[in-house]
Design goal:
single chain, 5-stranded antiparallel beta sheet, 26 strands
Length: about 325
């Protein structure tokens, strides 16, 4: 059994008898997604003012019935939600959050119970890059800066942040944006090597993509043209979707293709979305692949496409400045 699967099995054993109850008490007005909600995302479109902090939003699979789930942007200590991952029970999320006036990279991991309007910081004083929730709700997988070496490593913990374990503990590479497979057996992540090239890997050291960097750095990011980032598994765990940086234009956002491949050696990647646009991190559900696409004017569309690249459907469009992102399918 792979090392990650062994750890996951141990995490499940430690979680036995845990009914998933929320141990936190800090109040924050929130509400759970509606019964017909199928997609979560972040956006500042709850406000008419552009560049407002982002909240968690929900909508149906066809883009109808949008609703705002959180209100922390209007709290005494306002927040700006960058990413989210829903729990299997739909009523809880983990979110990577910052504040509107924070320094770059000042972002931490929050637990938010939307049913009970309570929240807490899971990992105080720790910069978290990204996080995912096991499909059975028993543990978290996240990328965080290692205090000893400064680079990001992959960690697991219980949903309340206890029983933390460093899975990679690497010195000269950065492991980021990890996602679990549907069965909790392995994970896929982006690995940035000592030369600054980002490629997709299966846990622990199996490369999915390879090849030299093809061009210049994208300012303000860890990526160079040719880098691969933000992988996610298909619902059956056999395929992987990720995005590849193809250019540094588009108002500084870069241009990105979406690509599907398998973890098998020698697999031929298939491009499913291409052209001069920014495409954000994708998420793959039974109804297709979600991603946010932004043009040079920063207008955004939440797009659904099928794994073959067919059936492109725009579910939502937002004007520049609302910063829509991080779409995730609800269980």
């Amino acid at each position: 059994m792979p090392r990650l699967a062994l750890f996951f099995a141990a995490a499940l054993a430690l979680a036995c008898g845990d009914n998933g109850g929320n141990p936190f008490s800090a109040a924050s007005p929130a509400r759970p997604p509606a019964a017909d909600a199928a997609i979560l995302f972040v956006s500042g479109s709850w406000s008419a003012e552009i560049n407002s902090p982002r909240e968690i939003m929900a909508m149906a699979a066809n883009g109808s019935n949008p609703q705002q789930l959180t209100t922390c942007a209007r709290a005494a200590q306002p927040c700006d939600i960058l990413q989210l991952a829903p729990s299997p029970d739909r009523g809880r999320v983990i979110a990577v959050r910052t504040t509107p006036d924070a320094e770059p990279g000042a972002q931490v991991l929050y637990f938010m119970d939307l049913n009970r309007s309570v929240e807490t910081i899971i990992l105080p004083r720790r910069r978290v890059d990204s996080a995912d929730w096991a499909k059975d709700g028993s543990f978290l997988l996240f990328a965080s800066a290692n205090a000893q070496v400064g680079n990001e490593d992959l960690f697991t913990s219980q949903p309340d942040g206890t029983e933390e374990q460093n899975l990679t503990d690497s010195l000269n590479v950065r492991e980021r944006h990890a996602r679990l497979d549907p069965f909790g057996r392995t994970a896929v992540f982006e690995r940035i090597d000592a030369e600054g090239v980002s490629r997709i890997y299966l846990f622990r050291e199996t490369p999915v993509t390879s090849g030299p960097a093809a061009g210049p750095a994208l300012p303000g990011t860890p990526y160079v043209v040719g880098s691969d980032a933000d992988p996610a598994f298909s619902p059956d765990g056999t395929l992987i979707v990720f995005r590849r940086l193809t250019g540094t234009g588009n108002g500084g956002l870069g241009t990105w293709d979406l690509i599907v491949t398998s973890g098998a050696t020698g697999a031929v990647p298939r491009t499913i979305a291409s052209g001069p646009a920014f495409r954000g991190a994708p998420d793959w559900g039974t109804s297709g692949i979600l991603f946010v696409e932004t043009d040079a004017a920063a207008n955004s569309q939440l797009v659904l496409v099928q794994p073959e690249g067919t059936g492109r459907t725009v579910l939502r469009t937002e004007a520049a400045g609302f910063r829509m992102g991080s779409p995730r399918w609800l269980p």
